[in-house]
Amino acid sequence: MTKALWRLLAVLLAFSLVAAACGGDDDEADAPAATEAPGADDADSDADDNMSAEAVGIEYWLWDGNQQPFYEQCAADFEAANPGIDVEITQFGWGDYWTNVTAGFASGSGPDVFTDHLARYPEFVASDVLVPLNDFVERDGVDTGAYFPGLAELWVDNHGNRYGLPKDFDTIALVMNADHVAGAGVSAADFAAAEWNPDDGGSFGELIRKLSVDANGNTGDSADFDPGNVEVYGLGLEGNFGAFGQTTFSAFAASTGFEFLDVNPFGDSANYDDARLAATIDWFARMIEAGYVVPIEDVESLGGTTVFQNGSAAVMADGSWKIGTYVGADTPFGVEFAPLPVGPSGSRASMFNGLADSINKHSEHQEEAWQWVKHMASAECQNVIGEGAVVFPAIPSAAEIAIAAHQANGVDVTAFTVHVDDGTTFLFPITDSASQIEAIVGPAMQEILRGQADAAGRLGQASDEVNTVLGS
Amino acid sequence: MIQTAASSQVSRRRPLFGSSNLHGGWRSAFWFLLPALVGFVAFYLYPALRGVYISFTDWNLIANRGSWVGADNYDRLLNDRQVWESLKITFKYTVINIVTQTILAVAIAVLMDRLTKSVTIRGILLLPWLIPNVIVALLWVWMLDGNLGIVNEFLGLFGMDPVRFFTDTGKVIPSLAGINTWRHMGYTALLIFAGLQTIPRSLYEAAAVDGASERQMFRDITIPLLRPILALVLVITIVGSLQVFDTVFVATGGFGGQPGGPANASRVIYLYIYQNAFDFNQLGYAAAISVLLVAILLTVTFLQLKLLRAGESDLA
Fold this sequence. Notes:
Helices cover 47% and strands 14% of the residues of chain A. Chain A is α/β, with parallel strands linked by helices and 472 residues long.
């Protein structure tokens, strides 16, 4: 009897191994197909078309729900011009989005085309799951010079392969609670003229002291100000600092002349041990302790946007993609925008980031996917996006449409665009280990901002760890 | 009625591995066990073996492939400060969680046994355990929030400053342990309550006749005779506790935070495994840490069963 049992066990085990091996074979079979040249895939999809005589379905994913209606419009226009292609758009929140994209790659499925981020795409490239667009771009004569300078180059890796065509860009500016600002007798113009330095905060530091109010009504520039009982913080923080501080510290650090990487994109080492960065983070930690900047604990539990929207912070730096959030009904007070302060380097600095659409190597319809990517990167679709006034399209003429649309709504967004006009932007740092760097530097920042660690020492330690990762 | 449930189970289990008492029962037992066996092989045994295999590769999750790297991952693991840091946090969580949970569960079980026969009350105690972990975590995140939470609102009535349960590096682990104590104590109490039913009433009656107080009876009768059940309960809860993940992930990642935060203060070992596998795409390394965790769990379980003599009862 036991023998029979063991025999059956063996059969079961063998069966499951065989099943798994078959699964493995599938993966193997996928891989060569995925590396086929664009032309070869053409034949495939054409054959599919002939057999089914149905439209080829292209699945497209994005994370920004605010933009979805305008991309639906783009898709409708695209389908009208390409009756053989049917675009299906799915939206996930930021967190779920990347989990789903990663799961899609791991299982050999996922969307045909997806909105890609500069912090993520190098890891996808390293895993060989994106389709290089060079041949497509060359074949169809797409002009990559049509976009704002620098945007198109962000999507070319260090081997010269292009993995995306730009669709939009974003910059950072200050958002101000108009009631608090007016109450303190300051104005957007004061902020526009402000300068900042990491020692005493400069005139920017004075402004946020003036805007801070404690529970007894004392302002931050009064000797009676109680930092343990603050009602309104002069400066809010949009989120956790993280490694790149897109909406938080990056603008301030970069205005000192600090750069994240030795070479961007794809540098070999990061500069987290730069004294100018340490001085910047130290300034934030001191300001939090003094009660002028919102404590990081509050930002972590509620999110910085909530803190600002419930009136607990007077001014906050945030990205252009959030303009709609602040001028919309969710924010129960009027807002104004101002550009970031001028730093010790003599100019302002705003991170310049842009999104693009990438094609999944597992896609069975890479040619159709490319057509859709090309459409989204075209003036036709970007004009539609511009009219939506959610983000700034990557093509200057379409961006003008967005600016005009904002103006028509009574919103002045020059605080965001002035960084581009004056050339005071710096590019998002691109490395192929962004998530590991995030996991190393993020906690270090949290310790420093809580006053639990010294900025220079802790960042120096993090810097060594980051450079070990980048070097490996 | 002298034999306890636990010891009779042990004696009944024996013939399964001996070859003497097979008869025809085996054949039908086998067919009944088959579905479970298939499930076990397909969903536990095979993935576990494959996990061990992957731990010897540099498996990349996104590319879904990897090549053999020998013991490299294990070498790296031994030198990875983060692994030991995460284990320390996990142990800290486990100690707080198990101590509070077990004390409360024994207290509740004894009260249920001695004071009430009401099924409704016993049912209510089990309620938190019926709520899924993620919902429990979200519920407490809202209640304990430093700014909006009802608990801090309440503390404010007594003039207390808001407590940052999840964003203070020193409070996050006790807070998480507290949440899971709340969720699990009813269930643990029920297990212990079942154990209490195996203690003969006559012992209490005899003790009462001899003039023993409630406290003496608890110390000299209840606790010693509960030992085998307590041992099993502790093994189950400690193993569960060492594997904590979802509560931490949801409660600390919630809104503006970073799972495992603040400043890695709640990055338990499961979360570190998750980070390596799903954030850093290093499935091979994550598998190696998982193998280490399995080894730790096996050791803990083995030691506990030995030390607490779980197989024997003082009743016999």
